[in-house]
């Protein structure tokens, strides 16, 4: 399944894909020029690995090395791209032999259509994925959390690591909207989303769960790693200057967190995190609580004790 941490990554991929397709057409036009004017062919046509040398091939390599999740879709494009280059080389070999050329040219046209169909499919996938992201904060929305969860549950099983789900809710956000207006509320949501996304590790995921609530899914080797991360996030948020027109303001959040246990349904996990968060709200806000059957553990106190 395709995966991106932020909507901007999808946009960048769409922009660069469009550019790569334009580069492909420039390359195809060059082929017509070479054929008509009998110019010297460059290695983006003649090399047996020409599909790796051309500008589109460069784009493809870059995507294949930078993302593991999209590999299947990208490899499907690569296969059609390579076949198209092979077909084009056969066309070149048949120049001067009109009878053979007709068939080779048809093969090339078909290969080109398959290649463009594969890139179209990928583009459609990227665009439908884009609809699962929040346009305000750029973060994945709750429907992606549900999709990601089954993959994460498998990972947990395979790697034996502990996953934590944290529900982060802005304190007194209604007052922010009432005092400074909804647009300022939006500025805060956007900035908080970016702050959270840039302060979790690459392997962790941050979602806009709805309204003024965010969810962070983290994979941690041990409890002290987890408490250290949460302590850091809480401190980053409470000390951050949120720039609104004419001034900078500070906000706090209350966080409820829980471990992902064997066989857990996602809804049950979210309910536990919600209970822990609610406990934090009722006990002064601006804190992070870990759900436990008997008491809701104060994560920041726990992190401080563990760090001694
Ligand atoms: N600006 C803006 N406000 C939103 C958005 N989504 C939800 N809100 C507001 O978030 C506020 C949430 O208010 P409450 O649920 O009362 O919570 P709160 O004021 O943060 O109080 P506590 O959570 O108890 O600390 C409401 O005023 C919603 O209108 C949004 O996308 N943009």
TrEMBL record:
Pathway: Purine metabolism; 3',5'-cyclic di-GMP biosynthesis. It holds the Pfam family GGDEF. It comes from the Bacteria. Its cofactor is Mg(2+). Coiled coil: none annotated. SMART domains: GGDEF. The keyword Transferase applies. The keyword Transferase applies. PANTHER family: DIGUANYLATE CYCLASE DGCM-RELATED (PTHR45138:SF9), REGULATORY COMPONENTS OF SENSORY TRANSDUCTION SYSTEM (PTHR45138). This is diguanylate cyclase. It comes from Atlantibacter subterraneus.
